[in-house]
Amino acid sequence: MDPHVHEPTHDGGRESPPSVGALIGGIVSDVEVLLRQEFALASQEIRDEVQDTAGSVVGLVAIAAMVATGVVLLGAGGGLALAEWLQQPAWVGLLVAGGILAAVGILVVVVGLRLRKRQQKRTESTGWLSKSSSSDNR
């Protein structure tokens, strides 16, 4: 039973309703309990999301490390094969392979930055903030 809400008393067969203060106190108490439960639920959901994201990030980092190792080994092998084919010292082939890999890396970064900028523009034009600010301008 809520301590803020008082049971009606009996005065000669008639029930007296709870006071306005008791009703408001009961409402405030209920709202407080509801808000605490909502905050607890929201914080648990955030914790779950962080754990899921952390697991995904660890997996992606492991995959990226394996891919990077593979690219380095393929570049070295390709550089040595190129040097052999051109009948040049190994450093020439490795230098050419390194230059090619660097150029490809720069190209990937440039394309990624352009895609990110395009995605940000799309997000800004469809985000809730821009909708609410555009409705304020009417």
Structure, explained:
The chain has helices at residues 20-86, 90-126, 128-136, and strands at residues 10-11, 14-15. The chain has one domain (13-128). It is rod-shaped. It has three helices and two strands; from the N terminus they run ββααα. The model is unreliable at 130-138 (pLDDT under 50). The longest helix is centred in the middle third of the chain and has 67 residues, at 20-86. α1 (20-86) packs antiparallel against α2 (90-126). With 138 residues, the protein is mainly α. A hairpin with a 2-residue loop joins β1 and β2 (14-15). It has a two-stranded antiparallel sheet with strand order 1-2.
Give a concise summary.
The chain has 138 residues and is an all-alpha fold. The chain is 82% helix and 3% strand. The two termini are 50 Å apart.
